[in-house]
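The protein record quoted in full:
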Amino acid sequence: MQIPAGKKIYFASDNHLGAPSRAASLPREKKFVSWLDEVKKDAAVIFLLGDLFDFWMEYRTVVPKGFTRTLGKLAEISDSGIPIHFFVGNHDLWMNGYFEEELNIPVYHKPKEFTFNGKTFYIGHGDGLGPGDTGYKRMKKIFTNPFCKWLFRWLHPDIGVRLAQYLSVKNKLISGDDDMKFLGEDKEWLVNYCKRKLEDKHRDYFVFGHRHLPLTIPLNNHALYINLGDWISYFTYGVFDGTQFELKEFGN
């Protein structure tokens, strides 16, 4: 895709709407909607890289209550013709058609490659990639197991959603407190994952969320790893203007 003159590509991740409660996250949601209102003025494409919600579960005819401001704004932007791409995170991985059917937003469960203005982007949420993190990888296999999801759906939504929200906030293995600490470049498992991917094929930009830290790390002379940060502590986002990628803080 060639970005039209005057247009940009925007990236955001890790809003965790609903945490620690809907009321507490409402100011953050309003700020995110304000950001969407701002970037729609010159957006060619918008990428949302997961954990938009702190918990999301789609039953056959039920989705979690709330988030109407965000969902309505996404619908408005999508209806206006601006493409939005959504990558599921470890908190909202139980998506199963709602975004596609109601918002016309494609949903990806694995990293995907895109090319804009001759630059190659490798994009994903980032959870479970690279070496280590074996405990979470085992947990993810349970969460994504079709039989386990089938069992969970037998819980009444009032019980299932409340239970999952509680665990999402309280359980460090799920809520990811450790993902907010910089480990050092040599120990950053997403950085190591990107370096391994470069051995197979060149990409110009590796863009991820999940780590909750705004990071820009050169992988070599021609490739860059970017972590978008979050909308809890940093309110950071990525923007590509056709030639350069930048991390910015909304409101500054």
Remarks:
- The longest helix spans residues 22-39.
